[in-house]
Design goal:
It contains 17 helices and no strands. By secondary structure, it is mostly helical.
Length: 326
């Protein structure tokens, strides 16, 4: 296995061996999001009806398959979209290795993380947005790293991918500020820093029409999750001065989503089959082991990668807060 992890092309081959068969076995949606929001939104996008608050790019891809396929074949292609974006992400890894100047053992750890970590398995095998988000995030990081002063085409590319990220998922609200912090401390000329930041800023501005559409068309939750999980609790705290009310408000915001009548019509047999439970917990175990290894790696190599850890600072805060809510 270590030999495979060391050879990039073998990692790609192993990805197809592990994941392609699962596309035929796993349910189209393993989480409530897919059943309650993503599939209905995809049908809306197929009809060019964008009267929903969630960012639309993923649903445009899934809506395209609706125009071509139906039945089990449609479900397969719904799952194929995140799989293809995950596979595309693997093709970015060699460039990441060069940028971070990774040693042999570090490459092995990162390759193993992408191939075996349970979240990547689940998010790349059913109708979820994360694979697309990871691909565009790493692509933006690589382009920023490779942009030298005066490379106009790359500034335009940074602008475009920033806009794409915003239209992919709301997590970008937290990630782009992290990129701004990283660029600010990046070792490059002041003019290059400014142009990169301006490109990202304009890319973010291109997302404003979607927010305005949500607001003026009276779509519930115009910022989608941000008002429920950040703005409203903060206002509650400052108005009422009660942390208990804030916790109650957060709990209500998080759990309201799960009480959806349509769930009673869903057959969960495929999700809770014995084979799937064995598969799920076996990868949970491997994920636990790999996570501990990565935590140890961060501690050991913290000096070498301190600037890149700074890039992730805001996202770490987001993940911590979200974990508490869950």
């Amino acid at each position: 296995l270590l030999i495979i992890m060391e050879k990039y092309k073998l990692v790609i081959i192993l990805n197809f061996i592990l994941r392609l068969p699962l596309l035929f076995l796993v349910p189209v949606a393993m989480f409530g999001d897919g059943l309650a929001r993503f599939i209905p939104r995809s049908y809306q996008a197929a009809r060019l009806n964008f009267f929903f608050p969630e960012n639309p790019l993923f649903f445009i891809f899934e809506g395209f398959w609706i125009l071509i396929f139906s039945g089990g074949l449609l479900e397969f292609f719904w799952k194929l979209t995140p799989f293809l974006f995950f596979t595309a992400t693997l093709f970015l890894l060699p460039e990441i290795y060069k940028i971070l100047n990774m040693e042999k053992r570090e490459k092995i750890i990162v390759s193993a993380l992408f191939l075996f970590y349970v979240w990547y398995f689940l998010s790349s095998e059913n109708i979820m947005i994360e694979s697309m988000l990871i691909f565009f995030t790493l692509a933006l990081f690589i382009i920023i790293e490779r942009t030298q002063e005066g490379e106009t085409k790359k500034y335009w590319l940074i602008l475009f991918i920033t806009a794409i990220l915003f239209y992919t998922k709301q997590t970008t609200y937290f990630m782009i500020p992290g990129f701004f912090i990283y660029v600010f401390f990046k070792k490059t000329s002041a003019k290059n820093k400014l142009r990169i930041m301006i490109s990202m800023f304009i890319g973010a501005i291109l997302y404003v029409p979607w927010l305005l559409k949500n607001y003026f068309w009276a779509v519930p939750d115009p910022l989608h999750s941000v008002d429920d999980f950040i703005l409203v609790p903060l206002i509650t705290f400052f108005q009422e001065g009660s942390l208990t009310l804030v916790i109650m408000r957060l709990n209500s915001a998080f759990h309201t989503f799960w009480f959806i009548p349509s769930f009673s019509q869903v057959n969960f047999n495929g999700i809770y089959s014995i084979a799937f439970i064995i598969f799920y917990f076996s990868f949970l175990l491997s994920a636990f082991i790999i996570s501990l290894t990565i935590m140890a790696g961060i501690i050991v190599f913290r000096k070498k990668y301190k600037n890149y850890l700074l890039l992730m600072s805001i996202l770490f805060v987001f993940v911590f807060i979200w974990g508490i809510l869950c």
